[in-house]
Each structure stands twice: as C-alpha cells, then as structure tokens.
Amino acid sequence: MAFSDKFLLGAATAAHQVEGNNTNSDYWIQEHLEHSSFTEPSLDACDHYNRFEEDISLMASASLNAYRFSVEWARIEPEEGVFDEAEIEHYRKVILCCKKHGIEPVVTLMHFTSPAWLIRKGGWEAESTVDYFRRYASYVTEKLGSELNYICTINEANMGLQLAAISKRFRLMAEKAASSPSSAEGKVQVGMNFQKMMENAKYAAMENAKVFGTPQPQIFVSSRTEQGDLLVIRAHMAAKEAIKAICPSIKVGITLSLHDLQAEKGGEEFVEKAWEEEFTHYIPYIKDDDFLGVQNYTRTVYGPDGQLPPPSGAELTQMDYEFYPQALGHVVRKVHELFKGRIIVTENGVATDDDSRRVEFIKEALSGLKSCIDDGIPVDGYLYWSLMDNFEWQKGFGMRFGLISVDRTTQKREAKPSLSFLGSCR
Question: What is the rounded distance in angstroms from the CA atom of residue 289 to the CA atom of residue 6?
Fold first, then answer.
C-alpha cells in the first residue's frame, strides 16, 4: 500500500489487558468483588509483563515499526507518593527492547486503570486528581523521557461521557424492554456488561463502599459529569505542560473514541449533537497538541427518532459492532475539518475468530487512510488494536481482536496471518 518509511505502522496494547497481576489497580479490585460485573478476572492476562521481549520480537519479524503500550500508574505509584523504581526500570526495558528491534515506542500514561488509592481520594471527579496526574507524568518523563518521542497522556478522554449517554439509553431500553442488552453494549467502544451491572448494582454498591469508601467509585470508566469531563482534559493539559518542561521534544497528544456518525433523512440534528459531545467541544483544549490519537471501530447511524440499530443482515463483530472498516477514513476526514494538527490512528480493529475477516478489515481501513493521506491530511501512523488477544475489560477474554493468539493455559503465542499482512502494508 506504500506508506512512507516514516509512517508508524504497528499495533497497540494496554498494560492491564496484557501484563497480568496488576494488583494495586482499581480494576483488579472490581474484578474480584463477589458481585463483579466482570465476566472473569484478568489474573495473569497474557503475561506480557514477563514475555514482552517475545511479543515485540514477533512484531519486528512481521516488519512492524511501532508499538503503542501503556505504563501502569498503579505499578509505578502503588501508594500515594511512593514510586517504585523497579517498575519504572521494567518499562525502560520494554522501551529499549522496542528500540533494539527498530520499533518506535508510543507510550500511554493512563489507559483506563488507576491506582486504587487515587479512587479512594475521589478518582476522576476529584480536583486533586489533576495534580496527582501531573506529578505522575513528571516522574515518568524524568525517568524515561530521554528514550521517547511520543506520549499519549490519557486514553479515550471522552469515554466517560459516552458511557453516561449509553448507560442512560440502556436503562430506558431495559425499562421499556425495547431492546436486548447486547444491542446497547455494541454501541460503546469498550467492553462493558450493562445488564450485569444493573443486576448487581445494589450488591456492588455495598462492596465498593467497603474497598473504596464510596458506593460509586469514580474510576476512569465511570459515567462522567460535565465537570468531570473538563477535569480529565485539565489533567491532560497539566501532564502535557509537565512533559514539555522536562523534554520539550516529545510529541504529546491525547486519544479520543470516535464513531463514524452518519445521518439518514431526519437524523442530522442527532449527528451534530453527538459529534459535538464526542469531539467538537474538545477542540479549544487540544488544538495546539502535537498530535491527536484517533480511535475508531465502527459507525453509528441516526434517523429521525435517534440512533438506529445495524442494518438488517449486517455483519456484526464479537463486540456486536457493525463490521464497517470504511468508518476510519470517514472519521479522519471529519476530524481534519476542525483539528489541523497531526493525526495518529492509535486504535482501530475488529473482534473476530475469522482472521480472514481481520485481514479484510485492515485492508479496507488502510485503503481509506491512504486516501486521506493522498488528499493531504497529515496522518502519521496506524496502530492496530490489538497486538494480541487479551482481556477486554468487563467482557473478559472472549473478544479476540489480536494479530497474535494466546493460549492462556500455556501462554504460548501464535502469529495469525493478519500480523504478517499488516506488516506487508508498509
């Protein structure tokens, strides 16, 4: 497909989803509650913490040249103000392993999981979190910044607002019995079990109160208020300022979860409102960032009465998304209308057991992206989600996005044809 030599073509992961045994995080605690909304706990996950060299080597063997991964705040600062030197050195080893294999490390500072202590202090609706995140960003940059060219501060900063809207819609649908739980879960780009959350709400509140000190802990993936949404953006801006003060050359950006919003006749106002909430209102805060991480998986269609289900007979993924790789090019074009900076596709992928469909998805998505580049849109990279089959949050290990399969009994890796196909697109 002939992307330039400087184009970042690779894959992405998140620490909690692949490393295993992230015991000081909010997610680890919630996975182990008696009335957890998680299908299963993460446990050893893919043991990427110990096997990262093998995984990075597989990427290199397929000619990929970029790896987006997250450093885990709950490992680096397991207790408030206590930083673990051994853990920061672990991530240095991951970065140096990437470089040894000719792979550009793209580091994310916060990919959904937070230290449990942060949540006990109010989490992602507490004013103090802005300064805590600034301090954490400073520490990571002081220790690792000289090895890095790219940092994503916060993954999918808009996810809280999306979840608030979806949760409200799901409650209404459940009350009216107008739709199935899966149809709601397929409208948000993260693994959620809304039905189980509703069923467990009473018990979970009591259990959360015991471990977090509140029945409704404000983890990052909680329904967000408008004030909390702004707080997340302020945390991003504080982290960016801290990073630049230490290493001005590092390119800093944020990532957003973006749908290809399409309107049938009468649905135009719904699309405009949804795009404002999902993207437009962030522009004043991110317009001067070095890049924007675009994360897209599917489209959302609106009619005169609101959001529509996937078309009859449409191919659905394991996540109940419509299989629609054309969405990526559409979203990148739409983003470029308002955001004039550099763009990196930090996530795009498909959950399926049919790897031939994954190959087709990648082929179509990259075709749309190449068209954007040919039209002068400054796209610097494409990082497929995900490098390996992993822990898809509340949905557990059943959602297979990976370019590499993982036998979780033996932790044996096996590259799928889609891995070499992606590498061949350079």
Answer: 20
Band (pLDDT 50/70/90 cuts) for residue 296 is very high
CA distances from 159 to 32, 154, 222, 302 (A): 23, 11, 8, 20
- Contact of 191 with 123, CB cutoff 8 Å: no
**Considering Cα of 40, then 42, then 44, then 48, what sign does the dihedral take?**
positive
Beta-ladder partners of 253: 152, 291
Q: Which two tokens stand for residue 364?
A: 């179509």
- Chain-centroid distance, C-alpha 371: 25
Q: What is the mean pLDDT of the chain?
A: 93
Q: What one-letter code names the amino acid at 261?
A: L
Q: What is the pLDDT of residue 403?
A: 99
Instruction: Tell me how far apart the alpha carbons of residues 110 and 167 are, in angstroms, rounded to a whole number.
Output: 23
Give the contacts of 90 (CB within 8 A, at least 6 positions apart). Answer: 49, 75
Q: Which of 33-42, 193-202, 345-354 has the lowest mean pLDDT?
A: 193-202
Across 308-329, b (16+ Cβ under 10 Å) vs e yields bebeeeeebbbbbbbbbbebbb
Pairing of strands 251-257, 291-295: parallel
- pLDDT of 186 above 60: no
Return the HEC string of 396-408: HHHCCCCCEEEEC
Residue 23: how many CB atoms within 10 A of its CB?
12
**Which three-class secondary structure state does DSSP give residue 32?**
coil
**Which two structure tokens, joined as six digits, stand for 263?**
């309107």
- Which tokens is 384 given? 């497929």
CA-to-CA separations, 16 to 72, 111, 394, in angstroms, rounded? 7, 8, 12
The domains located in the chain, with CATH, are 8-424 (3.20.20.80)
Give, in order, the Cα–Cα distances in Å from 296 to each of 2, 5, 177.
Answer: 22, 24, 29
Cβ–Cβ under 8 Å, residues 294 and 256? yes
Residue identified by tokens 């749908």 is 259
pLDDT at residue 165 in the model:
78
pLDDT digits (tens, 9 = 90+) for 133-145: 999 999 999 999 9
- The helix (H) or strand (E) run that includes residue 324 is none
Chain centre distance of CA 46 = 17
Neighbours of 381 (CB within 10 A): 24
